[in-house]
Amino acid sequence: MSRFNVRLLGNASPDIFDFDNYNDDAVSISSAGYVAGTVIPTFWKNRGARWTPVEHWVDSGPSIGRAINDMGHVCGIKYGAGGEHAFLFNGTLQVIGAQFGFDRSDAFDMNNAGQIVLWGQKAGAGRAYRYNSQSAEPPSELAVIQGHSNPVPRAINTQGHIVGESMLGDQKHLFAAGVDSVFDLGSLPGDGASVTDINDHDYVVGRRLFPGMNAPTAYLRSPGTAGTFQNLDDGNLLSSEAMALNSVGDIVGWRNQLFARRAFVRFASGPDAGQMIDLNDLIPPDSGWVLTAANDINAAQQIVGRGVFKGLNRAFELTPVSIKEKFGGPGAGGKPIADPLSLILSQAVYADLTKGPPIPNDGPPAILETLRLMVQQMDPQQRREVRAHLGRLRVYAAAIEEVLSKI
Fold first, then answer.
1. Which of 111, 201, 99 is nearest to 153 (CA)?
2. Higher model confidence: residue 230 or residue 21?
3. 17 — phi, psi (to 5°)?
4. What is the DSSP letter of 269?
5. 223-234: per-residue pLDDT in tens?
6. 346 and 308 together in one domain
7. How many angstroms separate the CA atoms of 36 and 209, rounded?
């Protein structure tokens, strides 16, 4: 049985030539299920995009969306006559790189508190910055490790911990930055070595060259200055990269196989925990997709990335089948559910998830206490399903608000 349903993203992009020829990518998914990435319509340049779930372009000019948070805010890079600059889209586009006087800049990641990690260049020197988009204060420069140069921040977690890369001579290194300190977490040998993500427990992923390997492969680094690098792809003589990990340690990325690149997932728990699994083996065999790269995964195990569909590079979103079957399947009498909000709030959903009694109708305190007891009795998979649906609720609410704002 397939473990994921696959959804095409970017299909709503305007295409004045009607050739349906795109080259899209989905790179970030928030815990609420919002997605950010890039769409490239026929004969057009790339456009940063978000799906909440309705597709929006963040700008009419060339841009790349790199990250999105639970408020639906997107950061990335915008190209134009003023150069290449970091942007924030929170309903309106703010070119924050130019706003603060950088010659060039880029925004790589952001968290739910609105903190953004920036790379900015002034007078030919590139530096790493933390920017609080909820404040009027300018970006604050991160300290540079003694002897290091060219720091580039790549990711930030909920606690505001940042990871990135810097150069020590001709060797790339992984660095981590807290509020007022920065640490060298070790070298990243190999062409194309990278740091791509940090989760809320300070585990870090990317790719590096391990001894005895022919090419850089995906790694997982444990927390702290004494943490170690684990080769996630020890049996692969070709290359791979871990692109993201969620709060429970599930990891996604891409892996080169003979004559092909495939998206992978590595679950942190369950019967196949610790194994690199080809995501193409976990979707319906007749889907028409070849998934080539998985770029992000949230706590509900929703995954976004890039693949080939009908011969074209397209963006995808995967949703665990168990979530879709419980909440998106037929209702009473086999009829389709027309109102997902009513479904998730129904007593039947909670009873089905927990195999417990229905929610009492004697007031909010009793309901909250019953819910608390139910959640305590859930297994991890059931809790993931509930979190996923809370995210879906936010998606539906955002869509409804958007429709109402235009009426």
1. 111
2. 230
3. -95, -10
4. S
5. 999 999 999 997
6. no
7. 30
Contact 96, 69 (CB under 8 A): no
* Residue 205: HSE in the Cβ half-sphere, 13 Å Cα cutoff: 26
pLDDT of residue 228: 97
Under a CB-based contact definition with an 8 Å cutoff, are residues 249 and 199 in contact?
A: yes
Residues 368 and 293 in one domain: no
CA distance 173 to 248: 26
What pLDDT is attached to residue 399?
A: 67
- Cα(127)–Cα(104) distance, rounded to whole angstroms? 11
**pTM exceeding 0.85:** no
3-class DSSP assignment, residue 300: coil
Segment 19-40 shows an average pLDDT of: 82
Tracing tokens 């790179």 back to the chain, one arrives at 27
Same-domain status, 255 and 300? yes
Segment 304-319 shows an average pLDDT of 93
- Name the β-bridge partners of 240: 255
| Per-residue pLDDT tens over the stretch 325-365 | 544 443 333 333 333 333 334 444 444 444 444 444 444 45
Number of domains in the chain: 2
Closest to 304 in 3D by CA, of 239, 253, 352, 268: 253
CATH number for the domain harbouring residue 118: 2.120.10.30
Asked if 392 contacts 33 with a C-beta cutoff of 8 angstroms, the reply is yes
**Domain of 345, in residue numbers:** 329-405
Residues 150 and 109 in one domain: yes
Q: Which residue has tokens 């959804």?
A: 7
